[in-house]
Every structure is written in structure tokens, then in C-alpha cells.
Design brief:
About 45% of the residues lie in helices and about 15% in strands. It is α/β, with parallel strands linked by helices and about 300 residues long. The strands form 2 sheets. It has a 5-stranded parallel β-sheet with strand order 7-6-5-8-9, sandwiched between helices. The chain has a 4-stranded parallel β-sheet with strand order 2-1-3-4, with helices on both faces. Strand 6, helix 7 and strand 7 form a beta-alpha-beta unit. Helix 1 packs across helix 12, helix 3 packs across helix 4 and helix 5 packs across helix 6. The protein starts with 10 loop residues before the first helix and ends with a helix. Bound molecules: phosphoric acid mono(formamide)ester (CP) and norvaline. Norvaline binds next to helix 6.
Length: about 300
């Protein structure tokens, strides 16, 4: 069993993982030897703080061992992807892979003979969404009927929130005047729309002026993420597009003025760019559950590792 996207996961798969994450957080001592010396390899093409640490520290706290591979220092960079994945599968019990391209990750998972977890590609970020549902359950005491409003660029994180949310009754409204081309997943969006659990907000100037406030007022959680994915942030070839996006997206910044009188919780997967998609003030606001959210990535990653190892 792989975790490349949450689209094929059932409601039970998701709810069990959330429940297991909360148990692990509350009783870490019970899980100290839970994986009995299993080995996790982290294979990363992109930078990471949370996902990498959650994987490395998580498997160690479960009694296993982590081995981190920076793609550029391996022969993955020059060899046949399937050959290298077969070899890696012979050395370790499970792989956490952060790839640039979803299609390449799918190819890698097909060649692997051990479970592969998507540690974020250009299309999905499933481990983020599972950790986020854990945080919502922890703070709101429920998932079904929760209203989450994602404001920003429709991206990998947004897709995984929709995929996870529609299985457990979380209603996701997306306010996104831009969609990352790699994140277009019409099948996912149609399925979630049919269930009434995914709506897009009209981003015309009038609608934003007149109705955004009303959407926020009805939301339990307001969520944002970077307007530019990490691999493009310092890429000179993306500089013009980055500038265009930053200018276009400024009216959608989450800040104290936009959330004025609202009691909603504020979430962000991090890393955050203060002064762009969110103000620094709001990151540290009493409505922000961002740092609990990022801590929960560790507990949730442990639950994911346990689930996939149990099914391998
Ligand atoms: N949220 C998240 O995945 O963070 P990292 O990129 O630091 O892993
Ligand atoms: N969506 C962003 C942040 C993920 C943690 C990205 O892919 O860079």
C-alpha cells in the first residue's frame, strides 16, 4: 500500500489515521518499539523542514531507523529511476519521497516493492492534509460539517485538503484567483463538488468586495499557503511570474484587517512568507493554530508510517 494521493483512501482509512495520530500524541511511550527496527529512507529532491523531521524523528521514536538521501548526491540523478527504486526497496522497509513532479513519483512508486509515501509533489501533499485533519479534530472536536476556507493559489496542499476533506465531511471553499498548472485535477474537484464538499468562490473584484467577508464569517478555519511553490521561490527563470503573482495576490493576504471580527482558526502548512500570503501578526495571533499544526505533522507521520508498515 502506497500513499501517493488521498483520492483512493476511504473514510475509514482517514478517520483511523487521525485517531491513531491523536493516540500517539497523547501516549507516545506506548509506541516506542512499535515498528521493531524497521528502516525508513527519505528520498528528497526538494528542501524540507517539517516533513523531513517528522519522518526522521518519527521513525526513530517508533523504534526504527531513518536514512536521508538528498537526490542530488545519489545516482538517482543519473540512472534509471525504476532500477534505483528496486535497489532502494531491497535496503529499506518504507520510503518517504519528496519529488518535483507527480508523474515521476507515480513511476517511482510503481517500481518500488515497499510502501512509498508522497512527501509533497507538485500535485498533492497528503501527509500535510492528514496532519491538518488531526489538528482540526483536536481543536474543534469534530471533522464532519467543519467549514474550511482556503484563500490563496490553488495548489498541492489545497488538493489534498479537498481529497481528505470530502471523505470525512469537511466542506472546503477555495478562494483562488490562480491555480498552479500541475495542481489541476478536474476528476477530484468534480467528485468533491458532487458531494457538496468543494466550492470555488467567484474572485471577481465585486464578489471579493461584497462576499468574501461573508464566506469567512461562516468558516471554522481559514487556511492559506505560499503563492509560489518552494522550488520556484529563488528560481531566476520564475522571477517574472513570481512578481506577477505577488502583485495579483496581495488583496488575498490573510491579515488582521481581513479577519477583523471573525473567530475562525487560522492555519498555514508552513513555511510562511510573512507579509505575503499571511501577515506576521496573524501567524502569532491567538486564532492561529499554525504551530500546533506543524507539531502535529510529527504525530501524524508516525500514524501514517504505522499504517503503511502494517499493510506491507
Ligand atoms: N509543510 C511542509 O511540508 O513543510 P516542509 O516543506 O518544511 O516539509
Ligand atoms: N505548497 C508549497 C508548500 C508545501 C509545504 C510547496 O509545494 O512548496
Amino acid at each position: 500500500m502506497h500513499l501517493i494521493t488521498l483520492n483512493p483512501w476511504s473514510e475509514t482509512d482517514i478517520l483511523e489515521t487521525v485517531e491513531s495520530s491523536l493516540n500517539i500524541k497523547n501516549h507516545p511511550e506506548k509506541y516506542r518499539h512499535a515498528v521493531g527496527g524497521k528502516n525508513l529512507c527519505l528520498l528528497f529532491q526538494k528542501t524540507s523542514t517539517r516533513t523531513r523531521c517528522a519522518g526522521e524523528i518519527g521513525i526513530t521514536q517508533l523504534g526504527g531507523h531513518a536514512h536521508y538521501l538528498d537526490w542530488r548526491t545519489t545516482n538517482f540523478a543519473l540512472a534509471d529511476l525504476s532500477d534505483e527504486m528496486r535497489v532502494l526497496s531491497a535496503y529499506v522497509d518504507i520510503i518517504l519521497a519528496r519529488f518535483l513532479k507527480h508523474s515521476e513519483l507515480v513511476e517511482a512508486a510503481a517500481a518500488a516493492t515497499v510502501p512509498v509515501i508522497n512527501g509533497c509533489c507538485d500535485r498533492y501533499h497528503p501527509t500535510q492534509a492528514l496532519g491538518d485533519l488531526m489538528t482540526i479534530q483536536e481543536h474543534l472536536g469534530r471533522l464532519e460539517g467543519v467549514k474550511l476556507c482556503f484563500i490563496g493559489v490553488h495548489n498541492n496542499v489545497c488538493n489534498s485538503l479537498i481529497a481528505a476533506g470530502m471523505k470525512v465531511g469537511v466542506e472546503v471553499t477555495v478562494v483562488a484567483p490562480e491555480v498552479n498548472p500541475a495542481a489541476v485535477d478536474k476528476e477530484l474537484w468534480s467528485e468533491a463538488s458532487r458531494k457538496g464538499l468543494y466550492k470555488t468562490f467567484d474572485t471577481s473584484h465585486e464578489a471579493v468586495e461584497n462576499s468574501l467577508e461573508k464566506v469567512i464569517a461562516k468558516s471554522d478555519v481559514v487556511y492559506t499557503d505560499t503563492w509560489v511553490d518552494m522550488e520556484f521561490f529563488t528560481d531566476p527563470a520564475f522571477a517574472k511570474e513570481r512578481k506577477r503573482r505577488l502583485e495579483k495576490m496581495m488583496p488575498y493576504q490573510l491579515n488582521a484587517e481581513l479577519l477583523k471580527t471573525h473567530k475562525c482558526r487560522v492555519m498555514h502548512c508552513l513555511p510562511a512568507h510573512h507579509g505575503y500570503e499571511i501577515s506576521g501578526e496573524l501567524v502569532n495571533d491567538e486564532r492561529s493554530i499554525i504551530f500546533e499544526q506543524s507539531e502535529n505533522r510529527l504525530h501524524s507521520m508516525k500514524a501514517i508510517l504505522l499504517k503503511l508498515l502494517a499493510h506491507s
